[in-house]
Amino acid sequence: MNIFDNPNKYVQEIVSKVRIGEDKLKRFNGKTMAFVFFTKFCDVQCSHCFFRSDNEGFDLPREQYEFSREGFENFIEFINHSNNGYLSILGGGEPFKKFEYIKETIRRAKTDRIVIVTSGMWGADDKICKNMIGEMYEALCQRKTPTKVVLRISMDKWHIAKIGMNCIFNIIDVFKNFFADKENFELQLHTLTGDNSIEKVIEHYHCTKTDGKKYVSDNEEIFKIGLYRYELYFPDGYKISVGIAQIFHSNLKVNLRNQNANQLKQLMTLFDNDMKYNSYSNPSLVKNKNEEWGLDFLISYNGNIATWGNEQLYSLNNLYTDSYKDIIFNIYHNIISYSLLDKGYFYRTKIISEVNPLAVLRSKAIHIRDYAGASILEENHTVLYYAIRVIQDYLKENILTLEELTGLSKELLNVINAKKLILKELYKNSVYSIIKQYMEKPNFDENEWRDLFNLIYFGHYTVSKEQIQEGIQYYNTYAKKRINKLEDVLENSKEHYQRLIERLTFMKPEAKRLCMENYEKLEAI
Predict the structure, then answer these.
(1) Total structural domains in the chain?
(2) Would residue 174 count as lying in a domain?
(3) pLDDT digit string (tens) for 364-373?
(4) What is the DSSP pairing of strand 305-307 with strand 293-299?
(5) How far apart are CA 522 and CA 326, in angstroms?
């Protein structure tokens, strides 16, 4: 029997039973960093945005796309337990569509720094702009403990083409005229490499700028490293810090079969350099000024939460179903997620490259840092191989002992005790593939299969011709169609791309069911 023919069974066995003892478990107790998306919706709707954010209809429950009040309260509770030093409210949708949540976060979140990232579209009307910024400052003044609030405007050619410059000028004017002397309330600008949008600010206000520095943090306590940073000086002495980030060309349908080799190499180099220099080779951790390390969290608009780059779609944590204590326990005691904390990004890619280099290539080439873990750990048999190799390494390092693994099944233990060469041969000889993984799902979903066929066509998975034909036959049987080849279902619609996003970001099923039950109860009243 080859355990790689039935990988999900053994992955779940490892996740539930393999535990590193508390005496040998590393803890990263420094100040944490957290990035949160309050909503998926956005009025700007940039075509290049990974999230393809929009304001169109949505499926129930709405919690799939933005925080409900319950979700927001659970988020505040999580942050207030997490020893947070840096909280960033991001755009995956426009956070100011949840302005009440922004103000409440400023009032209530126990953190040393709050950075709010926005397009600034809401600043088009100068009176509304002044009132909203004033309300944020008022919320800051109502806090019981001090913090610093930074409003960071994302400026680039795509945003400006959509919203113009007046909203940006209005926001700058309000800060410059009314809050220039407030040390804990700051405006920053942020743009992308090769983009000259900031020049419009320089020309409008007759600013001068400093030379700047590469790979520096935007603060001195929690090292949030950026590619480049400089200062703008206004004639009246007002100063704005400007950060420059690397452009990531997000594309869930990148063609890995016919992609130009040089372009592909550039994509991978950019991705690896970001991991190496901006994330200290470990996106799940953040370095503190005192040389301690803390956890770096990514909190999705649907409540899913993981440390950065550490998403496991078969083992999700969610704010609607899991307490802070549960989430931290799961992160440390799931040996797959713990290994990333302990050994870093390049360790994981090295092991997975032993049997599935295409998974590594795919996770880099789609150029989405947020969900790189979900991509590289998408295939169950690859996850099983990685988990076994991690266990083998921990056995060699005496972090684990064979006695601690006695609860595992005999066939799994036999493979753990096998040499790496034999392990690789077992993986290679397995009949399992992403096609088989989809066939194992309890319910057939025609759109899911069409999306999978599209990605197979673009070379995202290692699948034999025989396995493809088996998948097509399965699809035809349940969809009652008669397709003959992958090209018969190629699609390029907006709905199709939204579904591809959902493949990497789907809400934890138990949380979705809970939110749906709550909605049905309210409807019944």
Answers:
(1) 1
(2) yes
(3) 999 988 889 9
(4) antiparallel
(5) 28
